[in-house]
Amino acid sequence: MADIADADDHKLQRAADAIKAAPVSNTKGGSSCDGTCGDSSRNEQEGSYCLIKSVKHLSDRGFTRLPDRYILPASERPGDGSGRVKLPVFDLTRLRDPHQRAATIEALDAACRDYGFFQASALLLFLSLSGGFSALCVQVVNHGVAREVIAGLLDVARRFFELPVAARARYMSPDVRAPVRYGTSFNQARDPVFFWRDFLKLASCQPLSAVVTSWPDEPADLREVAARYAMANHQVFMELIEAALEALGIACGRSLLRELAAGYSQIMLNCYPACPQPDLTLGLPPHSDYCLFTLLLQDQVEGLQVMHHGRWLTVDPIPGSFIVNVGDHLEIYSNGRYKSKLHRVRVNSTRPRISAASFHSLPAERVIGPAAELVNEGNPRRYKDTDYATFLSFLASTEGKHKSFLQSRKL
């Protein structure tokens, strides 16, 4: 097995070097790779890209140690990371109660302003931001998404990643602009070290009917299940963003609501297989999200960590819940009042983990800058205007870890 791993190390290194040297494709769909391109005579970029099939492929082959290409420098490894966090509760039903709405929005404002994370759960709990626990995250209950819709998405995601490599590889592409894209790592074409994750990106812009037919047709129910989830998830986002805008003192008129309802969104299905040496790598590096809000659904396996006061804290997974975090767009739009939060993913040696991150924002062509209501003499403009094309160009040219894109937009 060691000889196999050594041979694959050399293949992986050569493939990665070829990818980094090649220009990024402008192809909008997946590649034509059939899962065996490493042995074919196809063009160098496509063939070398597909040599690195996925970490699921490596895990299924029974690797007992990490290929060198996945080993992080000592300073970037996960370390101890023994701190944990249990989440307070944010109950969406209280937004609908005229007698409790003001207090609930005040609690949401505090979570977005001070910590950047909160959690939405289907569990019937209560709002509690007082006492000895400072609200690193808030758990939102009664989010309205049926348990079967949530369970269905996690199940179909798991079945997609269990498909043969050839079926998954139909959607492989090095192009970060591709609306449907299967890949591995974080930003594979630019990562100097790869991360222990496979993903399937599904553009889920409104109306869904315009994009669903481009989604994978295997498993056979993926389109139906993911579309049902996308619609329900988008409704939760709309309720949360309307409350956040109210907390910021921004008039949420019909035109803005129409833009949000027709905004850009995508679902990122993630697979983190069991890893032979989890202390040497990460599933995802420290990063923030490019959106207004991210709604993360995860299974019962822990892995998400949030940076708080210089420490990485593991978020206890709660079945059926959403973890919601402020994205870079909302930090820009709020002129820095709300902060996007660094987070990362750890992996483990025994249990695979499945998650689904839904990123929501305004339409892709919309230029976003600080809201006029939040800029004045005492609070000057802190960010440049930006748009989705600018972000994709940035991502295509650099690693995109930490909050590097947001830093590039600061004045």
UniProtKB/TrEMBL annotation:
It is found in: Cytoplasm; Nucleus. GO terms for molecular function: dioxygenase activity; metal ion binding. SUPFAM superfamilies: Clavaminate synthase-like. One of its GO terms (cellular component) is cytoplasm. Transmembrane segments: none annotated. Residues 263-362 form the Fe2OG dioxygenase domain. PANTHER family: OXOGLUTARATE/IRON-DEPENDENT DIOXYGENASE (PTHR47991). The keyword Iron applies. Its cofactor is L-ascorbate. Gene3D superfamilies: B-lactam Antibiotic, Isopenicillin N Synthase, Chain. Keywords: Cytoplasm, Dioxygenase, Iron, Metal-binding, Nucleus, Oxidoreductase. The keyword Methyltransferase does not apply. This is Fe2OG dioxygenase domain-containing protein. Residues 18-42 are annotated as: Disordered. Involved in the regulation of shoot development and salicylic acid (SA) homeostasis. Belongs to the iron/ascorbate-dependent oxidoreductase family. Pfam families: 2OG-FeII_Oxy (PF03171), DIOX_N (PF14226). InterPro entries: DIOX_N, IPNS-like_FE2OG_OXY, IPNS-like_sf, Oxoglu/Fe-dep_dioxygenase_dom, Plant_2OG-oxidoreductases. It comes from the Eukaryota. Residues 29-40 have a biased composition (Low complexity).
